[in-house]
Amino acid sequence: MKTVITFGTFDIFHVGHLNILRRASEMGDRLVVGVSSDALNLQKKNREPIYSEQERMAIVGSIKGVDAVFLETSLEKKGDYIRHYAADVLVMGDDWQGRFDGFRTQCEVCYLPRTPSISTTSIIEITRATFAQVTREC
Ligand code: C2G
Q1: Which domains does the chain have, with CATH numbers?
Q2: Which of ligand 1's atoms lies nearest the C-alpha of 112?
Q3: DSSP of the chain, one letter per residue?
Q4: Whose alpha carbon is nearest atom 24 of ligand 1?
Q5: Which atom of ligand 1 has the smallest separation from the CA of 36?
Q6: pLDDT tens, 68-127?
């Protein structure tokens, strides 16, 4: 059985997230997803996620092709997670290109092209700009 592991915040779940999870699940027999904790996200991106870690885990866990979810509490623990879940392949979007090459001694590491023109950050920015415009007009 081939196990694939991937990681992410998956805040304001969108089609870019869906695509990478779908492609990752097609690469093996079992897909395990590490969802970044609220504290890790704050550390990585310097902002609180919009959806809590429990909500993000529930959303990701309900996606077809995802077999298990767990909370990723530290970027430094990736090797432990790979070992714990006996992952054969680590999949990440290519915005992380090269960053996880050190794990090639433990498993295959594969970077998939990001879905263009969509991100959690752009959704937040568009929502803020629209809200500001509506507020000005009222
Ligand atoms: N992604 C994508 N296309 C997009 C947006 C995101 O393929 N348009 C991918 C990212 O490359 C990542 C996954 O979706 O592999 C989750 O993206 P984020 O929620 O932004 O995750 P990130 O905060 O990068 O967390 O340990 C690593 C981190 O936890 C990754």
Answers
A1: 3-137 (3.40.50.620)
A2: 7
A3: --EEEEEE---S--HHHHHHHHHHHHTSSEEEEEEEPHHHHHHHHSS--SS-HHHHHHHHHTSTT--EEEEE--GGGHHHHHHHTT-SEEEEEGGGTTTTGGGGGTSEEEEEPPPTT--HHHHHHHHHHHHHHHHHH-
A4: 8
A5: 29
A6: 999 999 999 999 999 999 999 999 999 999 999 999 999 999 999 999 989 988 888 888
